[in-house]
Amino acid sequence: MPPTPVRSLADELRSWDDERLVALLEQRPDLTVPPPADLGGLATAAVTRLSVQRAVDGLNARTLQVLEVMAVSPEPVSSGELSRRWGASVSGPLAQLRGLGLVWGGARSLHLVRAARESLGPHPAGLGPPLAEALGRRSPQRLAEVMEDLGLAPSGDPDTALARLAEHLGDPDRVKALLEQAPGSAPQVLERLVWGPPVGQVPDADRPVRAGTAGSPVEWLLAHGLLAVADPGHVVLPREIGLALRGGKVHRRPEQSPPPLELRERKAKHVDDTAALAAAEAVRLVEELGSRWGTDPPALLRAGGLSVRDLRRTAGHLDVDENAAGLIVEIALAAGLVADDGEADPSWLPTAEFDAWLAGSVGERWIKLALAWWDSPRAAGLIGTRGPKEGPIAALGPGVERPQARIVRQRVLGDLAESTRRHAEGMTSVLTDPAGSGLVDRLAWQAPRRASAGQPELVRWALNEAAWLGITGMAALSSFGRLLVEAAETAPGYGSGAEPARRTVGAKPAADLLDETLPAPVDHVLLQADLTVVAPGRLPAPIERELTLMAEVESRGGASVFRFTTASVRRALDAGRTGEDLTRWLAEHSRTPVPQPLEYLISDSARRYGRLRVGVASAYLRADDEALLSEVLADRRAAGLRLRRLAPTVLAAAAPPDVVLSALREMGLAPAAESPDGDLLVHAVPPRRSRSGGSPVARRQPPPTATHEALLNAVRAMRAVEENVRRPVVAGAEPPPLVPMDPAGAIAVLRDAAATRRPLWIGYLEDAGKPVRQLIEPLAVEGGRIRALELASGRVRGYSVHRVIAVAGTDETASGTG
Amino acid sequence: MTDGPLIVQSDKTLLLEIDHEQAAACRRAIAPFAELERAPEHVHTYRLTPLGLWNARAAGHDAEQVVDVLLEYSRYPVPHALLVDVAETMARYGRLQLVKDGENLVLRGLDGPVLEEVLRSKKVAPLVGARLDETDVLVHPSERGNLKQVLLKLGWPAEDLAGYVNGEKHPIELAPDGWELRPYQADAVEGFWHGGSGVVVLPCGAGKTLVGAAAMAKSGTTTLILVTNTVSARQWRDELIARTTLTEEEIGEYSGARKDIRPVTIATYQVMTTKRKGAYAHLDVFDARDWGLIVYDEVHLLPAPVFRMTASLQARRRLGLTATLVREDGREGDVFSLIGPKRYDAPWKDIEAQGYIAPADCVEVRVTLPERERLTYATAEPEERYRLCATSDSKTKVVERLVRRHQGEQILIIGQYLDQLDDIGNRLDAPVLKGETSVAERQRLFDAFRSGEITTLVVSKVANFSIDLPEASVAIQVSGSFGSRQEEAQRLGRLLRPKKDGKSARFYAVISRDTLDQEFAAHRQRFLAEQGYAYRILDAEEIEA
């Protein structure tokens, strides 16, 4: 095919190779939902307002500036002209804009997609409307007055007048010369508008003004066309004047690179040690949360989430503040370690996953938490703040969702990983400002249009949470945190099936490095006569769990201190240990002999333990006549009641009272029911586990990101459709070659044809996706539908505009623009 | 990572493994800034508190030294946040100073914003006068103490550099005939004098009175000594006459019984806090002379009114003495700002190791109550329960057996409930000393006990403090005021005077098993257990009659 000049975005896309198209779809994933039928459809999707806005919102400050330069430049424009107006070479940003499908055309005739221009609002780069538009609002008489005041030859035709005015004032030198004659503070008035917003409030802006009678600087400027009237209350600085005052450049200076991050050096070992402590502590706290909730599950609020009271209790139990408790429960939820149990009276329980998680090393458990946090669309920092509805936002509730938090978190840590490094001499770069103000600025540079007022707070949360998790320490990425970020970035998180597992494998080096960094565990404790136990280091999890069962924790850190109390020993006895078990276990794990007071405490508690017994019974039988009870007990017909003698005059039954009553009656006895007041029902329930696979709240992830292969297949399919269209499928009466055309172009041609009742050929995708060619006479084009007479069958039918993939006139080849 | 003896916890406790070879060096290094919280047999616990860190600052240590010590001895990485916190806390001390500027007392801010911050506080405003310039604010001398208290509460403790009045000269010398000041006593006096004012912490029986006497000699001025009660006042007087050049005529007693003001005057807390017509009637003692030194004995008991009076005495040197700077009312901060920072502290076991206090063997005797008593206990009203189990008859029998076992030794029996004590006194035919016993009779009984004329003495809580009974070698505690840790320590303290034969003292606590008594006992023993005294448990049945 001979190279044809690019006439539209669709044309441009057709000239791309598959990889470039795939890259476009990767950068603008919304274009694949729903998948366009062919490249024309892709082009249409790519110029819709919403999609373009998304793409523009994702631009960094540098590319956005170039886009703004384009938006205020006359079209088509050359890249050289753009570079001149921007003040630096636009080649990089321009390539990016083209890759995104926002700009198309040759290097000397570049076009900006209209929706991109519109997405920048009425004042792109803070510049007002072009002169022709700004002055066009004046009446012909006023225009003539301006021209007269400027010394221009009058013209009867407003269009000519405007063109002449625009040309005259479009010359920067002339503007400069004019301003030199300006009275008083006129330059200061312009100064206020020059960098935007270009609109100023002026009462009665549309009053008649003449150069000769101008009473104020504003009047003088209006009279000379240096200011235009926006509406009766406002004046606006026309674009050309603004540009002239800006010295021909659109921006103060080209934002070529993000603001540098202020860093200083620290010993990497200190950073790693600090982070490792935090990481181990985070793992421990989540474990403690799980074991606590396993026996004492908090209820689920009706609106979802955890009540403030339960959060406070959990915080108290974990000995952390409520903010930390909120983060802990959210991370446990994100990692699928706790979930709503799905019962009628729902509560929060650890999942089966939790038990599996417990088996891992600290490092392995840590990466599970850290990766879950990395992907979580929720912001724990929101907990307790006022939500949009009344009342504070509940932990684990729907109000914690804030997808922006994930984006910020991943960008901030990604940026930190990219802009800091670990040096050979054992030093590493750390943030000079631990609060991360530098990262906030850089994040804003990365996507200025996404930067919201809440963004600094999200950055702060991200950094705090990363430090809490030990991904960072002392405001620097820890070595294992860096490995984790790299693993998380190379294998994108969401998606189903094997994806999470693959990432866990990818993050394995991070887990191993953390395990190596942590101090070696100690396998013994020191028992003391004041009933305390000191573990002079990190304990292996089984020892730690057993000790936590039998003693209260007093102090945590590099070492742990526990204290034995009557209550703590009783707790161990409740869990099925005997006094001897405890003493033996302590003797085995202690490097010092078991002190006598401790032995006494344990043996005294064990001695008193179980002197009171509590059991389950559904009914009881009592009689003063012991013989009668013996008789009942002996009767074979009572076997089903599972009777047990508790005392000479009392029997307990496992069967419910009504069953017992009828059974006794059948035995010929005359029992009477007692009021239920004395009936004790105690359920000893083992730790419960949620059967559901995880909360829908945590599992709600964004749509899976399509893989490169999938996108490539999609591109190939589009191309195939495209080529099919070029080959005629339906034999018509000498159909001309059809020109593939995007719907925006097609619609113009169809409208034109409808207006003149001219028949034309269209390539159309039938319901099954089968391309057909038909000769139609369009009757009306509106709302994305075409009503047309199909000439072959003579029927009037409807067509969807977006399925029209090509158009050819019967007498002339239609042309369109993108 | 070093293999040091110290583990620094993120909750600001320091764990010192004492069997480690560097333990002694480490203990010396951390003592200036960390408060010893517990000292059981293997691992001692210290705590970093703002007061402790400011005490260290007052003694001339800076944050860098503290951080260095922690890093040097720590076994594991020290939490970064903790180091930052130490540095920040220590930096708060001394940003404000109280200084003399000519005749004026001035609050000087070395840090402008801090001065602004405190001056904006509603609590500070009424205590300061005119702003002199950028850094100085006038302070009325009478508000010196109150201002220091308020500034401490605001977290910006002021360094008091305004000095002291010299006071009225009065020569006092120590009279060492056959004895001399022990090294730790000399250190304590030195530490106090160097700091100007402050508190010395020494175990019971370690000779705090002598530290007071030596401080008086150093000062060479008239001195006001505040003590807990009259008996204690007399003991101070006797000790001063024996150990210094002071004569009976130079020492006055200011108590309920007598109101003598002499160059050295010993007043009781009780008389100082006596109110007449709603006003404290004896405040003028503080102004009766131009005191050069004020000594507060048992400063952990200092009553609130005396604190208030002390606030206006900031220009006089103040020495606080105590064995246990644990105040059950949590007013350690007031002691810090009004008496002064801690200037000297030695763990009990250290002094014991040097042989200056007797080693003690603490035994908890557990008595199993008979069925009948258990039933009475189980059905008693809650407020009666402790008394019931504490005064069980079974205990009395055990006491008899213990007394027989220690025949020939000087035995004190200490209790809370007078009926119980009278009962025991009757059975053992021993005199009972209680609140209603007259001062003269008390004096007589103590003298008889000291001379060996009486071998067994039953005492109520009146003998908890400051009663010097060097010969007592066995104490049997039958009941106490609930869970008071401090009482337990003070009672043990009665036994800690070194024995002539170098023998250990024996302290029995008789406890009713499985009752409230046992629970309170566990709490009572905590201070001593933390000081390294290990209680042995003995079943009452094992005591041979």
Automatic annotation (TrEMBL), chain A:
Residues 525-647 form the Helicase XPB/Ssl2 N-terminal domain. Residues 685-705 are annotated as: Disordered. It holds the Pfam family Helicase_C_3. Keywords: ATP-binding, Helicase, Hydrolase, Nucleotide-binding. One of its GO terms (molecular function) is helicase activity. The keyword Hydrolase applies. This is Helicase-associated domain-containing protein. It comes from Kineosporia babensis.
Automatic annotation (TrEMBL), chain B:
The keyword Hydrolase applies. It comes from Kineosporia babensis. Coiled coil: none annotated. It holds the Pfam family ResIII. Residues 390-545 form the Helicase C-terminal domain. Keywords: ATP-binding, Helicase, Hydrolase, Isomerase, Nucleotide-binding. This is DNA 3'-5' helicase. PANTHER family: GENERAL TRANSCRIPTION AND DNA REPAIR FACTOR IIH HELICASE SUBUNIT XPB (PTHR11274:SF0), RAD25/XP-B DNA REPAIR HELICASE (PTHR11274). Its EC number is 5.6.2.4. Residues 189-343 form the Helicase ATP-binding domain.
